[in-house]
Amino acid sequence: xxxxxxxxxxxxxxxxxxxxxxxxxxxxxxxxxxxxxxxxxxxxxxxxxxxxxxxxxxxxxxxxxxxxxxxxxxxxxxxxxxxxxxxxxxxxxxxxxxxxxxxxxxxxxxxxxxxxxxxxxxxxxxxxxxxxxxxxxxxxxxxxxxxxxxxxxxxxxxxxxxxxxxxxxxxxxxxxxxxxxxxxxxxxxxxxxxxxxxxxxxxxxxxxxxxxxxxxxxxxxxxxxxxxxxxxxxxxxxxxxxxxxxxxxxxxxxxxxxxxxxxxxxxxxxxxxxxxxxxxxxxxxxxxxxxxxxxxxxxx
Amino acid sequence: xxxxxxxxxxxxxxxxxxxxxxxxxxxxxxxxxxxxxxxxxxxxxxxxxxxxxxxxxxxxxxxxxxxxxxxxxxxxxxxxxxxxxxxxxxxxxxxxxxxxxxxxxxxxxxxxxxxxxxxxxxxxxxxxxxxxxxxxxxxxxxxxxxxxxxxxxxxxxxxxxxxxxxxxxxxxxxxxxxxxxxxxxxxxxxxxxxxxxxxxxxxxxxxxxxxxxxxxxxxxxxxxxxxxxxxxxxxxxxxxxxxxxxxxxxxxxxxxxxxxxxxxxxxxxxxxxxxxxxxxxxxxxxxxxxxxxxxxxxxxxxxxxxxxxxxxxxxxxxxxxxxx
Lengths: 300, 324
Known about the structure:
The complex is a heterodimer of chains A (about 300) and B (about 325). With about 300 residues, chain A is an all-alpha fold. Helices cover about 75% and strands about 5% of the residues of chain A. Chain A has helices at about 5-30, 35-55, 65-85, 90-110, 135-160, 160-170, 175-180, 185-210, 215-230, 235-255, 260-285; strands spanning about 125-130, 135. The interface between A and B is large, with 41 and 39 residues.
């Protein structure tokens, strides 16, 4: 195994962590499985492409506009649609986000057509030397964004009043409500933040790779793999999950051949899912605790 | 007469079976009067009834929100086309083997994924659907990304295909009538509503869900095989496309989950009401389906059929209360 494969895997892992962070936040705080997260990423990329064609600015500068707009659009979706459905059980919010993903991808196809696009930038193909290996600058930027977002989420969760309100609403929404925390607002802001993170991911993907209105479904699976690997609601866990997945894909692709890169991810995810109940059971045995009291809340 | 008009499970089942028989007889009778285009639209509609009813068994009655119907459609499509092309088997044998392949795939999927609950199961099925699609793009035996086509001489003509589709829809509906109005249906619903409680009452969630999965997989593969015969040539990105899962689930939910006739209503509303009318604008019709899905889940939790039934019941109970 040469160093290049490992480095390439870790760099891709940064992107996977970005995809996983938004999902993990929403899932950890309100147990919402957002099947539209991949489409939020794609919307971020299209919005950036629109802003760039208007103003002619750098893709990453467009984030100043794209992130707040996407977050503002996401807020009412959670507040007035998804929060109400969360109280009706598991399936209604799942179906609603499924419908949202359909609306977004179909809407983008109707507006922008199905052709692949890429955000224009001068540095997307530039190379640099990292530990003796030739890599793309943009991939290093991706890893840096992933790490930076993880640190920011960790600090906000751990050291601000907002983070405390968020963790309280996650652990026990009704008690948090009696303590003067507006749980509905916390949920909506969490969803908006997740959409903002998705937009950052979208702009990065748009610059480094290409995107179509329907590329969201592939990202969602990567995101869930990361979340399941890293444990729910933990920012550092998500980062580690992303890096591990990047490594697995890179090494798997190097061993089996490039055309199996995507297949490696899906197969790995199925193995992880199949192994998860067994692993949890063993862990419960080791710590001699009943499975029922296993921690599932948000950890910072 | 008592077996037909009384309240209770058996009369309800008999009413549904008679309704289905009447519907099938009408659809056979009108066949001669239909034009070429109408036959093809009705064939597709009937095949959708088959696969949506099949998904309803696992997704609606058993409450296991599977995103993998696309994989079963693909398995059925490829089994039929490979058999016709490689072994030149008769169509009925190819379809029968597609059913077997679907059940086998369902068994494997169930063994791996029924350890998981709720959204973990859902995401697991999404992984299976995507894994199956990417695997088919790399598998040279089935033609890789280029796909394969069935020999034209062996493909049944459109009228025969219509009868096959009618048979497939009939089988799927009979299966859902028998399952829903039976103790198996009750056990499935008890697993859906409270897996642990069902388990504590002596119902094995694993084997109950497995039965639904096997039935659902076999029927979806049957529908997929017939869809492939309608198209004649298939490739991984269309046969295993996630669009199948999306369309099937949207139809089932809009019609009414866990009911016999909900899927039929969903298919007619989405396929005939939107897809056929907006043929030239596929993106707009997908957009409309998504919008309807979100509105239905927000305002009509039981789907169209569930809401209508609840409304009729409310009216009836108000009348009896006033009379009493």
